[in-house]
Amino acid sequence: MIIVALILIVSTLAYYAWSDMHQAFIDASSVSAISLDPSHLPYYMLRTTMRLIIGMIFSLIFALIVGYACAKNKHFARVCLPIINFLESAPLLGFLTFTTAFFIFLFPHSIMGLEAAAIFGIFTSQAWNIALILYQTIRIVPAELTEAVTAFKLNAWQRFWKIELPYSVPGLLWNIMVSQSAAWFAITASEAIPTITGDVSLPGIGSYIALGLTDSNIIAIFFYALVAIIINIVLFDQLLFRPLVKWSEKFKYESINNKTTDNPWLYRSYKKSQLVNAIKPIFSTIVFWLINGASFLNKKINLKSPTRDIKILKKLSCTAWYIVIISACVWAGNALWHFFPDGDMSYLIPLMIETIRHMDRYVKQTYKSYSTNNTNRCSNTTTDIFLDCCCTYLSW
C-alpha cells in the first residue's frame, strides 16, 4: 500500500508540475512573479525538484553514451576527454548565454523553452563528473570479470549490461549524489533566464533565494528557503538515494563483505509490495530479452560477422572522424579570426601579458604560503611550479 500511495502521489505532483512547465510564453510578463510568501514555497520546491530530476536523467543518459564511447574508442576519447575536462571547469553562466536562444527556438511560445535552458544549466553542473566516473570504472574492470566475458562468449552489448555497468553502479550512484550538490549551487543562476524582453525568473527555490537577496530579506533566505532546501534534500535521500544505495550493494566487487546493516524503510516496503512482486517477473523478462535477444537471434540465424569488412569500416570511420575534427577546428579558427575587426587580434597581446603577470603573482603567493608548510620544496618560480605539476601529473 505504501508503494502504491507513493506512486499515486508522485505521479500526480509530476503531472501538475509538468503541465505548468508547458504554459504559453510571450514575454517576461507571461510568467507569474515570484513571491516571498512562504506559502508558495511548496510549489517552488516542486518545480525545482522536477528540474533536478530531469537534469539528473539526461546527465545519466549522456554519461552512459559518452563515458562508454570514451572507454571503448581511443580515437573518440582523444577528442572528447579534453573537451569534457574543459567544460567541467567552464562557468555555468557561460553556457546559459548561448543556449537560451536555442531552447527558446526549440520550444517557441512555451515556457518549456525557458525550463529547458534551466534544466541544461543543471545538466552542465553534473554531467561531466558522471561521464568521467563511468569512463574510469569501465577502464578498471577487474581481469576476473573480463575472463568471465570471454568464457561465456558475451558480445559487447551483453558485456556492458551484465559486467561493466553493474561494476560501475556503486561509484556511479555515489558520484550522482555528490553531483547533486553542484546542481543545487547552479539552481539560483539557472532559474533566472535572460531573454530579449528581460530576465525571467522561473518558479523555484533558486528564484526565491535570488529575490530574497535583492530585497535583503534575511528571514526568507536563511529560514524559509533553507528549510525548503533541507526538506527537499531529505526527500531525495529517503525516497531515491538511500534505497538505491541499498540496492547497489549487490553490485559491489569486494573480497570483504562490507555491506551496511542499514535497511531503508522504502526498500523494505518495495521488497514486501505485492504490486512490485507481480510486475517484477514481467519486467525481468523484458530486460532479459532486451539484453540477450540479439544474441539468441544471431545463434538461430547463424550469422557470421564479416571480419574483413568490419576492419575496413573501422578504418574508414576513424579517417572520417579525424577529417571532421580537423575541419571543425579550421572552421572555428577562421570564424574566431574574422570575429575581430579586420582579423586583427594584436590588441589582445598587452591584455594577455597583463593576465599572465597577475597569474604569475598569484601563483607565487600561493606557492609561498604552501612552501612554508613543506620545507623540502625550495623553488618559488612559476617555471618550477609548472615543472613540478607536470612531473606529478606524469607520475600519476
Structural write-up:
This protein is mainly alpha-helical. Helices cover 76% and strands 2% of the residues. It is built from 15 helices and 2 strands. It has helices at residues 2-20, 41-72, 74-89, 92-106, 111-124, 127-139, 143-151, 156-190, 205-214, 218-248, 265-272, 274-301, 307-339, 348-371, 382-395, and strands spanning 192-195, 198-201. Strands 1-2 form a two-stranded antiparallel ribbon. A hairpin with a 2-residue loop joins strand 1 (192-195) and strand 2 (198-201). Helix 2 (41-72) packs parallel to helix 6 (127-139). The chain is globular, with a radius of gyration of 26 Å. The termini are far apart. Residues 375-396 have low confidence and may be disordered. One of its GO terms (cellular component) is plasma membrane. Residues 45-240 form the ABC transmembrane type-1 domain. This is Binding--dependent transport system inner membrane component family protein. Pfam families: BPD_transp_1. Belongs to the binding-protein-dependent transport system permease family.
> How many beta-strand segments?
2
Provide the succession of SSEs.
HHHHHHHHEEHHHHHHH
The overall pLDDT average reads 82
Identify the overall geometry.
globular
Q: What would you report as the Rg, rounded to the nearest angstrom?
A: 26 Å
Strand order of the largest sheet: 1-2
What fraction, in percent, of the residue positions are helical? over 70%
Number of helices: 15
Membrane topology: Multi-pass membrane protein
Pfam families: BPD_transp_1 (PF00528)
GO cellular component, one term: plasma membrane
Transmembrane segments: 49-71, 92-111, 117-135, 218-241, 278-298, 319-340
